[in-house]
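Input sequence (182 aa), recorded before submission:
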Amino acid sequence: MWGIGSVITCVAILLGMGAAQTTTLALQQDLSSKLPTGASFTAKDSAGKIYRGHVVTHPARRLLRRGSMILVFDDPVAPVTKDPEGVFRAGNKNRLIKLGGSLAAAKIADDAVDTSIGASKARYVAIVVSAALIVFQKGGEAKLHKGDTVEVEPRREKPLEAEFTPKSAPASKRNRTSEAMQ
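Predicted structure, token format:
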């Protein structure tokens, strides 16, 4: 009898520890990786509660590098994304179009100078044109528009002492640090 009760208890506990419950938030303004890091934003859930936060951005760079942004909420929630770190990135579609366009421009440049300077030298012109276009084009910016939805899940908050106490410090030093904070 005790065996059945303990099995039922274990199953109930495991079912309760399932995936964290997510909430859908609607953004109240446009966000982009072009924004400065620390720019604030707001989002609202279906019940009308307002969530505030700021963005950590990495703008798009040369060599077709994508822009990215992280939404950091003031409330104890974290966004759910495909990326395990919660990063929103620009898509690959525009990068592939730009890459294909630079190769097409190289082919056009090759054909344009083929008769005037010869076929072997025209290949070098095509390589230079293709490399220049790839180097000087930027990748796509990560964008979230007003009204877009973001799934968030609750996260654990760290205790205040854990944030300010270095783990490598000896125990006596950690105790002095926590006493100084009080």
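Checked by second reader. Confidence is low (pLDDT under 50) at residues 177-182.
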